[in-house]
Amino acid sequence: xxxxxxxxxxxxxxxxxxxxxxxxxxxxxxxxxxxxxxxxxxxxxxxxxxxxxxxxxxxxxxxxxxxxxxxxxxxxxxxxxxxxxxxxxxxxxxxxxxxxxxxxxxxxxxxxxxxxxxxxxxxxxxxxxxxxxxxxxxxxxxxxxxxxxxxxx
Length: 153
Description:
CATH class: Alpha Beta
Shape: elongated
Helix content: 25-40%
């Protein structure tokens, strides 16, 4: 663990995780009855820190809001094998979310420290929410829930 990440881990206390944005799309030419395990063969995942904001409170503490993006999409065998760019691929199923993880700290942290923490460790707090969103979105679509493993940091 780098000194920057250790400083963040020692000082940042999680306050909340909220869903900011959710995109769920089952391809137009597919109904939920047509969706089966063969549709899950070729997945592409997305996980990253979008940005963060910080502000000092009246009590002299610091609030940090880390904006994360997590998603998964499943593409057809033909799209997976083709050399088309990702922009021209229409996924069979795509679920993407943005979460905001809010932390409190008794000291100010540098941009580099927060960015390093946000590239990895913020997902420890966000991942359970992502797993629930993924599974409940599948249930709402009427397809078998996609189960992903707990995150190990």
